[in-house]
């Protein structure tokens, strides 16, 4: 029993509730949100360190013991992701102060922001499949509101589609939970894992596994189920887009991580091969989108899909290198995607257009922006010593061990294409002659640049210091590779 | 548009109170028999909706001058305080305690902390339902 | 009884799919409603259909065998609450969209360059 485990959920809940009462006082709302986010980082950092010292922490909510009640489980993977989420949340929050606009701020932007964090943190921390569904829904409800807040035409149109797709996937989630419950008679993840091992995953469970893949794949935007993503992420303002791009798809991937390493790992020839194929196809589709568009937002959005593919491919390999690579890559990708969205947002604000053909020559007036973007861009592509490198290298090593050469080639070529797509933004956006007279004051730009620079610096540190944080990653991988550690921690406290 | 809805209005005057009382009974009856905050909340909002149907939105806001958004906030606040109670007593969150006591008129009854949580749920449900109905209703 | 339930669930899913494939927003929303009803019914069926007393502790019931399984009921209640919330949000959103865009036809909300 450890109440700390639930604090990353409870803390934003309280913040969000308090913020509801001060809906019209913008300054106060900003202050409370910022303060609370910083505390949130401290809490999650403490959680990571505690997990590092004491192993997996669990909490049987309401004093009900593991297989009967809902458990909250903080293993290394969850707590690292919670920490990353809180850091990104704070950075995007600071960025929102300068760009989200008064209209949205008075209409419950900040409370809903906190509710989104509740959903994301909760989904990372829960140890119960149905509870995962509940936190998914909390997260989705918050994302619906954030998506539609402001009520422009494109937002209304796209959020309608987004919601309908997600309602469908939620119904699917419920259906799959029902099947799993009827086959195995439990919904606690550790207990499920134990029971699946006992029966050695017969065909019906593999079918359910693929069903869950559809559900999580819809959230995480893997190959045939990603079509909703480019449209709906395009619609909201930049901070919301950064929040979605950095966090929401990653929750889907985390769920695949959890279910496919903890529960459905007995029939790897079928399920994990399927996963690998989907991962590679996702990479290919993402690359095509990323190099085809001239719209900066679209390019970064398709880069999300590429990253999803790479991580999914890493999970499908199921060996130590590939999994640690995937974990490194997911954290790297969350940080750098948030930073890139923020940077692109500044570019759009300066030039007044999101089409690269209408930009150009920004480096002359805004050198700091340009070089931050450059570093973020090459980190994204995975050039050593920046943060994308270690993750990709480990995934490639894992692939070599499994002799998955086709996937290796896809990942390598995708890196080149990612580099091309972001360099296209850099060359066309920053070099050349200015297309217009950019009038946005440097002061404003610098203010908006602060959170993005923070994220980029953090990701550079993450890249340079991969060696020193590797113990944390290997602890996380240890749990993923040996489900017994997780099961023991949850069921035999 | 002036409508002749005398019958509806007269019936509402009585029925709304009956529904409200029934809602409270269902709310308090939860935990040991079917019922609780969610159902009670829905019942209450049904009563308010009946009022809205019989009269108009202005009259109802005059009768019940409540900001439903704040109601959601206070409901959530009560519920989450109950949840966080575990922090103070050093037990897992959401742990509930109960005690049986004898009161002069009511007799042998049980007191639960779960009721506090349910009170929050009740307020949230009424708040959310009414906010939604007002959002659609007000624009006409 | 299970067979009957399976058929009912199948009909619900079928109508939901049909409605969700149509162009009008309102039909799609009714479709999502039917879909979640089907899913809830599925949980109930999957949890095992047997008679028994309410899963509330009382003196009248001798052993735990006489209770019905409370978990599917708890799951359904949660799922119903969530789908209630989402559906009402969706209805409000659809109404706002209709006001703003002046159409309820998904075909006209494609988001291509032509109808930006």
List the helices and strands and how they pair.
The complex is a heterotrimer of chains A (493), B (140) and C (116).
Chain A: H1 7-21, H2 26-54, E1 57-60, E2 71-74, H3 76-99, H4 102-106, H5 109-125, H6 129-148, H7 153-184, H8 189-199, H9 203-220, H10 228-234, H11 238-263, H12 268-292, H13 296-317, H14 320-351, H15 362-365, H16 367-381, H17 387-401, H18 405-430, H19 442-464, H20 466-481, H21 483-491
Antiparallel strand pairs in A: 1-2
Helix pairs in contact in A: 1-2, 1-5, 2-3, 3-5, 3-11, 3-14, 3-19, 5-6, 6-7, 6-11, 7-9, 7-10, 8-21, 9-11, 10-13, 11-13, 11-14, 12-13, 12-18, 13-14, 13-17, 13-18, 14-16, 14-17, 14-19, 14-20, 16-18, 16-19, 17-18, 17-19, 20-21
Chain B: H1 6-29, H2 37-54, H3 57-63, H4 68-89, E1 98-103, E2 107-112, H5 114-138
Chain C: H1 2-20, H2 25-46, H3 70-101
Helix pairs in contact in C: 1-2, 2-3
What's the short story on this structure?
Chain B is mainly α.
What about the largest sheet of chain A?
2 strands, antiparallel
Largest interface, counted with CB-CB under 8 A?
Answer: A-C, 32 and 35 residues
**How many separate domains make up the residues of chain A?**
1
Task: Write out the strand line-up for the largest beta sheet of chain A, numbering strands in chain order.
Answer: 1-2
What's the number of extended β-strand segments of chain B?
Answer: 2
- Integer count of domains of chain B: 1
Percent helix range of chain B = 55-70%
Alpha-beta content class of chain B: mainly alpha
Please tally the β strands of chain A and state the result.
2
- The N- to C-terminal Cα distance of chain B equals 13 Å
Radius of gyration of chain B, taken over Cα atoms and rounded to an integer in Å:
18 Å
Coarse shape of chain B: flat
- What is the overall silhouette of chain A? globular
